[in-house]
Amino acid sequence: MAKKKATGGLDEGAKIRVKSGVMSPDFPDVSFGGWTGSVMEISGKAPAQKFIVEWDSATVSAMPGDYVSRCEAQMLYHVMACLNADDLEIA
Known about the structure:
Layout: E1 15-18, E2 36-43, E3 50-55, H1 57-62, H2 65-73, E4 80-84, E5 88-90
Antiparallel strand pairs: 1-2, 1-5, 2-3, 3-4
């Protein structure tokens, strides 16, 4: 199966950094700014594409414990997030 491509180099497998000021879609009081990872999957069509990001080990180890606990309490997978293209930049 071919990798999906998006605009601006945000293809599946791309190493990304979350732009400053971007908050968690699930917990608006948690900043994702500066978090890094890889695009695992792209869904939808531009301009409404969603990017499934898997956080890298450095980001996971630096995550606030409260964020991890809140994700677990709501049965959310804390090592991944779904974000918009405007939230991301190539790392």
